[in-house]
Amino acid sequence: VQLQASGGGLVQAGGSLRLSCAASGRTFSSYGMGWFRQAPGKERDLVAAINWSGGSTYAVDSVKGRFFISRDNAKNTVYLQMNSLKPEDTAVYYCAASSALSLTTTPRLYVSWGQGTQVTVSS
């Protein structure tokens, strides 16, 4: 599956952004999906994940209650709604597809990656 992320930009602290990740192919609903982020000088970390149906989601503690992952299998798209943004959320955000139907928090199980979209939060 090929992935195309979009929706990043510059926003003030406290603002919101919604990232989208469009997938090609007819098997999108066969993949668990995730959003990762990588800040300068840091490793790429999982932010949120979702299973194939959207019925199960996960968010890392640092974004829980602020970021929400969802998907629309009819549109082959996964979203990351980001609210109450903080300067420490500044990073390049990547969407990825895992090799499992279920939700996975194991980075090595993600087999396809989008190109990344920059999110910058100003204080």
Please, could you describe this protein's structure?
The protein is mainly β and 123 residues long. Helix content is 0%, strand content 50%. Strands 2, 4, 5, 6, 9, 10 and 11 form a seven-stranded mixed sheet that branches. A four-stranded antiparallel sheet has the order 1-3-8-7, with no helix packed on it. The N and C termini lie far apart (37 Å). The relative contact order is 0.32. The mean pLDDT is 96.
Secondary structure elements and their pairing?
Layout: E1 3-6, E2 9-12, E3 17-23, E4 33-38, E5 44-50, E6 57-59, E7 67-72, E8 77-82, E9 91-98, E10 110-113, E11 117-122
Parallel strand pairs: 2-11
Antiparallel strand pairs: 1-3, 3-8, 4-5, 4-9, 5-6, 7-8, 9-10, 9-11
What portion of residues is helical?
under 10%
Number of strands: 11
Biggest sheet character: 7 strands, mixed
How many DSSP helices? 0
Can you give keywords for this protein?
50% strand, 123 residues, 4-stranded antiparallel β-sheet, 7-stranded mixed β-sheet
Q: Summed up, what is this model?
A:
The protein has strands at about 5, 10, 15-25, 35-40, 45-50, 55-60, 65-70, 75-80, 90-100, 110-115, 115-120. By secondary structure, it is mostly beta strands. The strands form 2 sheets. Strands 2, 4, 5, 6, 9, 10 and 11 form a 7-stranded mixed sheet that branches. A 4-stranded antiparallel sheet has the order 1-3-8-7, with no helix packed on it.
